[in-house]
Amino acid sequence: MKLIKFLTISFLTIFIFTALIPYVNGYGCDYDYTEKFDDYDMIGSCNHGILQTHIIYHNNDFSYYKKFLWLKYSDKALLINISSKLPQERILRSFPDFEVRFNQYKNNENTFAFYLIREAKNGETIFLSKEPTEAMYIFAITGKLSYF
């Protein structure tokens, strides 16, 4: 009986510490980034495990904010959307691909994103994603992504 109790407590302890590692590691983020794309600019920062992103569109001068919980383990990051101020439907109608954008924003309002992180030879950081949608971002990041 003592062996079963010991194994159960050991298993639970290992599981809890393993589950907490990405959160604790992500809490060590301290970086800023600014990146310009064809249609929009992204400006953001991550401090103490909270990633804040401001996206500014060029064609009609509207922008929106998103705030994520930043969890990082090894070369992977999980972003959990904890707050967002998304554009109104009337603003999105100004885009030629309104249906795609509206569904994207509507479905991504309370969701997550999973990224594989790679370092480029020029020092930039590459974020690759297949969930919830395929995406690739290349950022010149100033600071550190996590504790380790």
By DSSP (H or I, 4+ residues per run), the number of helices equals: 3
Largest sheet: 9 strands, antiparallel
Class of secondary structure makeup? alpha+beta
Helix content: 25-40%
The gross shape turns out to be elongated
Q: Care to count the β-strands?
A: 9
Gyration radius (Cα, Å) is 19 Å
Task: Tell me what the structure shows.
- The protein is α+β, with helices and mostly antiparallel strands.
- It has one domain.
- It is 27% helix and 46% strand.
- The protein is built from three helices and nine strands, in the order H-E-E-E-E-E-H-H-E-E-E-E.
- The longest helix is centred in the N-terminal third of the chain and has 25 residues.
- The model has no long low-confidence stretch (mean pLDDT 84).
Features of the shown structure:
148 residues, 9 strands, alpha+beta, nine-stranded antiparallel β-sheet, elongated, 27% helix
Question: What is the gist of this entry?
Answer:
Helix content is 27%, strand content 46%. It has 148 residues and is of the alpha+beta class.
Strands, helices and their partners?
Blueprint: H1 2-26, E1 30-36, E2 40-47, E3 50-57, E4 63-73, E5 76-85, H2 89-92, H3 98-108, E6 112-119, E7 125-131, E8 135-139, E9 141-144
Antiparallel strand pairs: 1-2, 1-9, 2-3, 3-4, 4-5, 5-6, 6-7, 7-8
